[in-house]
Design a protein that fits this description.
Elements lengths: L13 E7 L5 H12 L5 H14 L13 E3 L7 E6 L2 E6 L1 H10 L7 H11 L3 E9 L2 E11 L1
Antiparallel strand pairs: 1-6, 2-3, 3-4, 4-5, 5-6
GO molecular function: ATP binding; metal ion binding; P-type potassium transmembrane transporter activity
InterPro entries: ATPase_P-typ_cyto_dom_N, ATPase_P-typ_P_site, P-type_ATPase_bsu_IA
Protein name: Potassium-transporting ATPase subunit B
């Protein structure tokens, strides 16, 4: 497909990279991104699971194997989705929504989180922030870079 600028695109966005904020490992972002995407049947959600498996060697998990998991579906109002499981809450979604979710929980947003999302947007990609709340508190882990 050609987009409005004449650029060849796949027609659907795919995860191309997991970009950690300072102090976080890319594998940690990949794990949280995969976990939050297990119930996401969109092409973007499937591509996140595949990228985590192929690039980071994370075994493919299925939503049915996470006993007691509470899946949080994406809505136009929340602009994020995720899962609550094993004392952890993982969310992925629009920058403003995820930052607000972290801050509502008294958590920290790494200084470079907004910079990373701005860089991805300026390069023509779509950024999705990934955040985690566990015994260490709520925090942004990094960004999923979606490309057409």
């Amino acid at each position: 497909l050609l987009d409005k600028t004449g650029t060849i695109t796949y027609g659907n966005r795919r995860a191309s990279e997991f970009v950690p904020v300072k102090g976080t490992m890319a594998a940690e972002v990949a794990d949280a991104a995969q976990l939050s995407s297990l119930a996401d049947e969109t092409p973007e959600g499937r591509s996140i699971v595949v990228l985590a498996k192929e690039k980071y060697g994370l075994r493919e998990r299925h939503e049915g194997e996470l006993v007691g998991a509470e899946w949080i579906p994406f809505t136009a109002q929340t602009r994020m989705s995720g899962v609550d499981v094993d004392g952890r809450k993982v969310r992925k979604g629009a920058t403003g929504s995820v930052i607000a979710w972290v801050e509502e929980r008294g958590g920290s947003v790494a200084e470079d989180a907004r910079t990373l999302t701005d860089e991805i947007s300026q390069a023509g990609g779509t950024p999705l922030l990934v955040a985690l709340e566990d015994e260490k508190g709520a925090r942004v882990l990094g960004v999923i870079h979606l490309k057409d």
